[in-house]
Every structure is written in C-alpha cells, then in structure tokens.
Specification:
10 strands; OB fold (Dihydrolipoamide Acetyltransferase, E2P); 3 helices; 5-stranded mixed sheet; CheW; CheW-lke_dom; CheW-like_dom_sf; mainly beta; Chemotaxis protein CheW
C-alpha cells in the first residue's frame, strides 16, 4: 500500500459527520472497514461451534448456526488473497456477520476495533494503492491519522464480497 499518494481528509467537526463503518483488522497489519448498513453484528465464536465442510475452497471455513439460521463462515483475508488466519492454534474466531440482500455471511477477521465515521468524500480510488487482486472487493481506501502515524483503511464492498465467485462455486 502506498500512503504517500493519498491525502488526509479535513479536520472533523465535534459531531463526527459521515457514515458509520465497522473498523477491523484483516490480519495483524491491514486495517479495513465495512459499511454498517451490511453489518448485523460482531461475535466471538468458539471453534467447536464451526462445522468444517469437505471439498470446499480453502477460504470457506465451514458452517455455523446462529439464531436458527445456518451461515457460511469465510476467512476474509484468504478470500481477498491475503494470508489466512492461523486457525490451527485458535480456540475461537472473531466474526463479522453481514447480510447483503438475502445472503447472510460470517467473515472471520483478526480483530474488531469498533465503529468509526468516514466522510464519503474521503474515500479515494484504491487503484495504484493496493494489489490488483483486492480492487474488485473495495469501494476505495481512506488515509486516516492514527496517533502519531497514518494508516490506510481499506473500505470493503460488502456486495462484492457476498457475491464473490468463490462463494458460488460448488
């Protein structure tokens, strides 16, 4: 990612205008956000409550039952072509449950940080900032000041992820 090619949004008013996003980390180094209009909830799921399914793509972790609904759980970082979660040593998963139209989906991530607000005008083109394999799953990226440093937040497109060809393969 190339933070020097992005500009910081202007100073925010005390009311924190903009749209709400759930901020999380795909892995230890890569922060990202999802629009709250797709997010249902963020949960910690014990690994024993996830049922692995045979003959599925590697990013498909398995099925879970949540409130009498069966939901696919996907390793979001691996789906996006990044390093996969270390599932062998974990006893629980951090999941973001999203719903796009009628499609519910559980997305396993490294860590959920909380809710942040972003101005739509602060979202910039991801082309040239991130690897080309990520671009189809992004609405853009935002340069955000975090304490003394700057970080690039990936603004993920929930619809593109929910309709990914990997999730439709048999």
């Amino acid at each position: 990612m190339n933070p020097s090619a992005l500009s910081l949004p202007g100073m925010r008013s005390p009311k924190a205008p903009g749209e709400s996003y759930l901020k999380f980390h795909l892995n230890r180094q890569i922060p990202a956000v999802f629009s709250m209009r797709h997010v249902q909830e963020a949960i910690i799921l014990p690994s024993r409550r996830l049922t692995p399914m045979p003959n599925m793509p590697a990013s498909m972790m398995g099925l879970m039952n949540r409130r009498s609904r069966v939901i696919w759980v996907v390793d979001l970082a691996q789906l996006l072509g990044l390093s996969m979660l270390d599932a062998s040593s974990t006893q629980q998963y951090t999941l973001i449950l999203i719903q796009v139209g009628a499609v519910p989906l559980g997305l396993a991530v490294h860590q959920v940080e909380g809710i942040t607000r972003l101005e739509p005008s602060a979202i910039q083109s991801p082309i040239g900032q991130v690897t080309a394999s990520l671009v189809p799953y992004l609405r853009g990226c935002v340069l955000q000041r975090q304490s003394e440093k700057q970080e690039i937040l990936l603004v993920l497109d929930g619809e593109a992820i929910a309709h990914s060809s990997i999730l439709r393969s048999p």
